Every structure is written in C-alpha cells, then in structure tokens.
Amino acid sequence: MATDVELLIDMALRLAGESPAHCGYGEEGGALTVRRRLRQLVEPAAAQAVREAPASVFATWRELDPEGVTVEAGGCGYALLPADFMRLLSFRMSDWRVAVERVDEARGACMGRLYPEAYASPSRPVCRLGQRPEGRALLFAGSRSPTATLTQGLYVAQPRIDRRGTIEVPEELLAAIASKMLAIAAKSEG
After folding, report:
1. Range of 35's domain?
2. N or C: which terminus of the chain has fewer CB atoms within 10 Å of its end residue's CB?
3. 121 and 78 in one domain?
C-alpha cells in the first residue's frame, strides 16, 4: 500500500508530543527543521521495520526472475537478485519438497559446494545471501536435478519514496516506522 510520507511524519511528531501544525518546512537558522529531518529518516526507518516484520503482514511482493536462476553440479545454485531486493519471503525449486522462507546465515550454500556442517536436500534446502561475479545472489543447496527450475521466488523490495511523495509499505507497519524514525533521530542527536 502506498502511504503519503507526510502522514508518517505527522505520526512521528504526534508520538513525540509535537503538534504537526506547528512544525513547518521553513529554515531555522540554516539548520534542518524537524519535518525535513524526519523526512530523511523515512526510508531507513521503513527498511528497519520491513526487516523486523513477520512475513504475514506483506500482502504485496515481487517475484524473482526465473531466468536468473542457475543450478550447478552437486545440487548447489544461485538466483541473481534484483537491485531493489530487501528481504526473502519464499524460495522454492521444482525438485524441493518445501519452500525456504528465511535466509539462514549460520550455515548454507557456498558457490558450488556446501559448508561441511550443512546438509541440504530437497526436504531440507538451505539458502543464504552471497556475492557472485554477476552481482548479489541468493545461494542455495538442496537440488538433486541440474534441470530444476524456480517454482516460487517472492521477495520484498527496499522501501523508497517515489516522485509523488509516497512509500510502499504495509499499513500494519506505519506506527512502527514512525516510532523508528524518532528512535533513529534520538540516536543521531545523542
């Protein structure tokens, strides 16, 4: 859902005990006004809220390009990630019994081989974020067939303010974003 950034700023001001009507965008002795400073914090606060939110709040998502998926020998492979990738919601190959719904940083696939402590199979696939010469990628292990294809690849995009002054975030996260804006502002001032 697209949310007007001004609404988020007003929410943050109300949480801070300020009246949104008394906080304008004019200059205050060459320094940024409260509204301008909060506007700068919308994207980082939204990104933090999206990372921490349960997957169930996301009614909209984007799909990974099946053409960007490669399965290599040994059951490992990779999916090239788009520039706006922020968070994985679900990833499943055609020969897997289950989908991966979170990226496991503790153990995982490593470009063409598994870490010794990780055992991956179609019933227990493993994914992690990594880097390839082609760019950022989701590395995976657990495929048994080199002809396996991507059947599901869903992700959440990095929240960005568009030209209309709106940001695409779930409505359930608005209060969390406003709160995080204040927390980031307090941390940077303190």
Report:
1. 2-58+170-189
2. C
3. yes
Q: What is the CA radius of gyration of the chain?
A: 21
Q: Which residues, including other chains, have CB under 8 Å from residue 23's CB and lie 6 or more apart?
A: 13, 33, 34, 35
CA 183 to chain centre: 20
Domain co-membership, 12 together with 67? no
Kindly write down the DSSP assignment for every residue of 122-168, as one continuous string.
TTB-EEEEEEETTEEEEEEE----TT--EEEEEEEEPP-B-TTSEEE
Share of the chain above pLDDT 70, in %: 84
- Contact between 6 and 165 under an 8 Å Cβ cutoff? The reply is yes
Q: Are residues 68 and 52 in the same domain?
A: no
Phi, psi (5° rounding) for residue 160?
Answer: -135, 145
Residue 87 maps to a domain: yes
139 CB neighbour count, 10 Å cutoff: 21
Both tokens assigned to 41: 């914090």
Dist. CA 92–CA 100, nearest whole Å: 6
